[in-house]
Amino acid sequence: MSGATRAWRQFGDGPLSRVASRVYTLLVVELLLLLTTLPGLLPLVLLGRDPSNLPLVALLLVPVGPAISAALYALRQQGPDLTDLRPAALFWRGYRANVLGVLRVWVPTLSWLAVLGVNLAYSGAVGLASWWAVPLVLIAVGVTLCAANALMITSLFDFRTRDVLRLSVHFLVRSPAVTVGNALLLTAAAGITAVTSEAVLMLLASIAVLAYLRVSDPMIHLIRKEFTT
Questions:
Q1: Which among 99, 152, 184, 196 could bridge 200 via Cys, Cβ 3.0 to 4.6 Å?
Q2: CA 71 to chain centre
């Protein structure tokens, strides 16, 4: 190994270089997340927060699923070595590989949540008793948490959609730490959006995706150990 190669290797393995590579990767992923979601999120920021807009909100959020999936793939696959940084290439590879599988999970999830949201908002108009609010909220929470598991599994593994759904429900119970962690992340995201706007949340998107990935590590480890060869 030449002196130059050894120098590059040491530079790429040091703690400062690992921090720098992580910051660089997060910045690149953030820019690509903004690029791939901007067509839907720009009108969403301008849209009024009225329950009647929920179906339109669901439609505008369709590009977000494949973008998050690509970001998960890039952050999972990218190593800390500064001599081999390629987050953009990994992002686009993940996007192309996962877009169809993610949409098969993401679009039904958005549709279900839109229907549940409209029914909650207009429960009186559709003739629902007030006590129906509790089961509808619980169903919405369950659908969202299952979708969080399913999105992670689809992004990092190559399973059939029905197997993804089975695993997402299975790990909802088997990995309570992952379930609680995802619930806290979703609560934080909802709080940021409510207090500020969707634009602020998007500026923190790559950090949020990294946190989502770290929360899901126990589930990822178990799937790799027990359901892959």
A1: 196
A2: 8
* Six-digit token string for 7: 């120098």
Flag whether pLDDT at 4 surpasses 60: no
The residue assigned the tokens 């949540």 is: 113
**121-141 tens-digit pLDDT:** 887 666 777 778 888 899 999
Write out the two tokens for 169. Answer: 């429900």
Residue 105 exposed, middle or buried by CB count within 10 Å (0-12, 13-18, 19+): buried
Q: What are phi and psi of 50, to 5 degrees?
A: -115, 135
Tokens for 122? 């207009």
Cα 131 to its chain centre, rounded Å, is 31
User: Do 81 and 21 touch, CB atoms closer than 8 A?
Assistant: yes
Angle between helices 205-215 and 15-46 (to 10 degrees): 110
Average pLDDT of the residues in 31-51: 87
* HEC profile of the chain: CCHHHHHHHHHHHCHHHHHHHHHHHHHHHHHHHHHHHHHHHHHHHHCCCCHHHHHHHHHHCCCHHHHHHHHHHHHHHCCCCHHHCCHHHHHHHHHHHHHHHHHHHHHHHHHHHHHHHHHHHCCCCCCCCHHHHHHHHHHHHHHHHHHHHHHHHHHHCCCCHHHHHHHHHHHHHHCHHHHHHHHHHHHHHHHHHHHCCHHHHHHCHHHHHHHHHHHCHHHHHHHHHHCCC
